[in-house]
Design brief:
Rossmann fold; 5-stranded parallel sheet; 21 helices; 63% helix
Length: 525
């Protein structure tokens, strides 16, 4: 589609461009942005050619509106030399290319040819993506494996995720619950460790589990690597236990015959909620790891798990490291406080006072070690808090002391990060203001301050509520308003001093921002 308020310009393009030769149908035409939008509602358009300067709706506004409405167009902007900055903004809002007046037919045809190639590539990508989606949708094995991974590692805690999986796999309601079964290949008994043999063995291992459990309609199995297969059993029935044991024995025997090795199997209790799957899986894995220290090839049931040992394992390997990790990330400090409180409540329900006190001392010691006493305020607090913990005589006192320290620690980390970020953003803002006459970009700012450009963009917006581009433009406009109050500074000089190459584009943006032209602003202020 060609959009231009000058009919002669439209006709020139229609007549002189070899549309059919470069693979295009005869173009639609419109003499205004409003007419173009009306045509887009009723026609499939791939390429939009628009003049920048048009009354009522400019080419920039037309491109921006098309983007808002979701039209996927290749856009070619036509502009005069003194309107180049208009073209820059058009590209910013979605245009892919531009040509300058006077128009050269061969240049327009070259751009259109490039557009056609880009459109064809995009369609090829979309076709391949759709084909892949169809293959994935048709391959239930791939989908089911992904489901098992998400379930045992994350628990489908998010309602939207859970509902999408239930719908995709047509999962039944959990009338009787779920059980997790882990089959672990005891590799330490096997000498075949090269990559090829592991891949072949892992494939055979998964097939053996699937074949042995094929008679159970509620079982979904997935490989967790070459040495582990996990199955989730939905709504298991009591009468299925004997058949399950036979299926497990089949897998163990097949691996022994094929590879001369053993398989350790762990079965969880039946639990009622999708979100409990990760902890059930962790319990089974701990049980299997401990049993393997003595002997491989066992079948283990969670009912026999030593709860005290497992809890101590989690405190040592999971709870304290996770609290420390979260506190070291200022953006997770609030969650760390809640997590610490939950851990303490759970430990209090299972352990006596002395254990809770020891946990508190262990956590505080680890936090002090990680911090390396670099913060004077926290360093001064460490010894008195340890003494208070030692002096505690009740569990609630221990919890209060630990939570007070964790909260202080979280606040210190947040204040430290906020101060660092504030200083950084202030340095960047000062630099922009000092170089407002230059064309400062996010990339330049990122390189100057040794940051990733994407990270800088996110951090700047989080700290100021504005993008870098918005801040630059706002700073330019504020400086321009200040300069316009001086009657001795001409408008074109103001434009130059705030970084614009042409007075025309400066006037356009100034009016867009303030509602006044520069001269009107000067007259009224």
């Amino acid at each position: 589609m060609i959009v231009d308020d000058e009919p002669t310009h439209i006709q020139g393009l229609v007549r002189h461009v070899g549309w059919e030769a470069i693979g295009y149908a005869p173009p639609l035409t419109a003499q205004s942005g409003e007419a173009a939008l009306a045509l887009l509602r009723n026609h499939d358009v791939d390429v939009l050619i628009s003049d920048v300067s048009m009354p009522i709706m400019t080419g920039i506004e037309l491109v921006s509106r098309c983007k808002e409405l979701g039209y996927r167009l290749q856009v070619l902007i036509i502009s005069g030399y003194n309107e180049f900055e208009f073209v820059q903004e058009a590209i910013h809002v979605g245009a892919q290319a531009y040509v300058l007046k006077p128009i050269k037919t061969e240049e327009v045809e070259a751009k259109l040819t490039a557009f056609r190639a880009a459109i064809e590539k995009q369609r090829d990508i979309e076709a391949e993506t759709n084909e892949l989606q169809e293959k994935v949708s048709g391959s239930l094995d791939v989908v089911k494996e992904r489901f098992v991974h998400d379930l045992v590692l994350e628990g489908l805690a998010d309602d939207d995720t859970k509902e999408s999986w239930i719908k995709l796999l047509e999962l039944p309601p959990l009338m009787r619950g779920i059980s997790v079964i882990s089959f672990g290949y005891d590799r330490f008994m096997d000498g075949g460790r090269d990559a090829k043999s592991r891949i072949v063995r892992g494939s055979g291992f998964l097939k053996a589990v699937k074949v042995s459990l094929a008679d159970f309609p509620g079982v979904i199995a997935a490989s967790m690597g070459s040495e582990e297969v996990v199955a989730v059993h939905l709504n298991p029935l009591p009468e299925e236990q004997v058949r399950m044991e036979k299926g497990i024995a089949f897998v163990q025997q097949w691996i022994r015959e094929q590879y001369g090795s053993s398989v350790t199997v762990g079965l969880s209790r039946i639990f009622k909620d999708w979100g409990e799957a990760p902890i059930a899986y962790k319990r089974v894995k701990y049980m299997m790891a401990k049993a393997r220290l003595l002997e491989g090839g066992q079948v283990l049931y969670e009912e026999r798990l030593d709860e005290t040992e497992f809890l101590e394992h989690r405190v040592r390997e999971e709870y304290i490291p996770e609290i420390v990790r979260m506190l070291e990330k200022a953006d997770e400090a609030g969650k760390a406080v809640e997590y610490t409180s939950s851990v303490l409540d759970m430990l209090i329900a299972h352990h006596p006072f002395t254990y809770i006190q020891a946990f508190g001392l262990g956590l505080l010691s680890e936090l002090a070690r990680k911090r390396k006493l670099q913060d004077d305020a926290m360093a001064d607090l460490n010894i008195p808090v340890w003494q208070r913990l030692i002096d505690c005589t009740t569990v609630p006192q221990v919890k209060d002391v630990v939570m007070e320290y964790v909260k202080r620690y979280a606040e210190a980390e947040q204040n430290k990060q906020n101060s660092q970020q504030h200083n950084l953003i202030q340095k960047i803002s000062d630099y922009i203001e000092a170089h407002i006459h230059e064309n400062v970009t996010v990339k330049q700012l990122a390189e100057l301050h040794h940051l990733n450009a994407s990270y800088l963009s996110v951090l700047f917006r989080k700290s100021t509520g504005k993008t870098v581009s918005e801040f630059v433009q706002e700073t330019r406009m504020n400086k321009a308003m200040e300069l316009l109050r001086d009657p001795h500074v001409r408008v074109y000089e103001v434009a130059e001093q705030v970084g614009f190459q042409t007075a025309a584009y400066f006037t356009y943006l100034f009016k867009k921002t303030t509602g006044y032209t520069p001269q009107e602003y000067r007259d009224y202020h």
